[in-house]
Specification:
Strand content: 15-25%
CATH superfamily: Vaccinia Virus protein VP39
CATH topology: Rossmann fold
Distance between the termini: 34 Å
Order of helices and strands: HHEEHEHEHEEHEEE
Strand order of the largest sheet: 5-4-3-6-7-8-9
Number of domains: 1
CATH class: Alpha Beta
Radius of gyration: 16 Å
Number of helices: 6
CATH architecture: 3-Layer(aba) Sandwich
Structural class: alpha/beta
Length: 213
Amino acid sequence: MTDWAARKARLILELRREGIADTRVLTAIERVPRERFVMPAFVDQAYDNIALPIENGQTISQPFVVAFMTEALQVGEKMRVLEIGTGSGYQAAVLSHLCRRVYTIERHRGLLDKAKALFEELGLHNISARFGDGTKGWPEAAPFDRIMVTAAAPEVPKALVEELAVGGIMVVPVGITVFDQQIVRVRRGEKDVHSETLLPVRFVPLVEGVGKA
């Protein structure tokens, strides 16, 4: 029988060594069973600090990147958070332990259905998930206190900035190719938008429209 608790504890220690200091973020990661969100062929690597492939040519992000982006988002327990790119559902599950409600959008219906089933099994009832074009956000539920984008946009998506509440924060990978992507943190003020570059990364691209499956 696999000792998931021991593997998870080693990962949390590694994340601390790599600079993740927010105890709320670390606790949220500790509460989410990552082994449930990876493909069966890779389950033995669930708590290795690496990205892993999932269906539809997508990935489940490296735990350090999940922790870093979540920490950078500065999520409060009463906030409403929009996630673009549900994928396996792992990032949304982590966010669900930090805020009041998560809204997450996925363009591949198969991925969305699997993620929704997992959310139900794990009792994560504060997640609303839907099939759609993430580049357009979720305008009828806007504004959001926080927005996280888990695919790389060529530039900061203006449509998503418009869905941020004043004082809100968006964390998004930005770059044309995998070689120039950077995590960017965007803060929306009363009259302007401020952006700062935080970390080089490699993400799948943010794609308009919806997938065939």
